[in-house]
Amino acid sequence: MADKSLNKTELVAKIAASTGQSQATVDAVLGGLFDALSESVGSGTKVSIPGWLAVERTHRAARTGRNPQTGATIDIPAGYSVKVSAGSKLKAAAK
């Protein structure tokens, strides 16, 4: 597992430094990206940035689970989840 992480503030500062844009501009663009991602994925539209990543909504069927404290079986309702897949450029950067 990675022992380093980059939070949003640090990411905004890094992008602003490399592009010459203000941090406010970069933050607004990232905010717009996240809004577009959540709107698209929420409506069932797959978002794909070739070579980098793909984000899509997946459906989970209803299933039976078990309460770990009591051992009783419980019914888990059907629902949705989000799947994020790394593209080839992102995979290559991880090597």
Automatic annotation (TrEMBL):
Record GO cellular component, one term: cytosol
InterPro entries membership: Hist_DNA-bd, IHF-like_DNA-bd_dom_sf
Signal peptide region: none
Xref: Pfam families: Bac_DNA_binding
PANTHER family on file: DNA-BINDING PROTEIN HU, DNA-BINDING PROTEIN HU-BETA
Lineage: Bacteria, Bacillati, Actinomycetota, Actinomycetes, Micrococcales
GO biological-process terms attached to the record: chromosome condensation
Protein name from the UniProt record: DNA-binding protein HU-beta
Keyword list, A-Z: DNA condensation, DNA-binding
Transmembrane segments annotated in the record for this chain: none
Family as reported in the entry's similarity comment: Belongs to the bacterial histone-like protein family.
GO molecular function ontology, one term from the record: structural constituent of chromatin
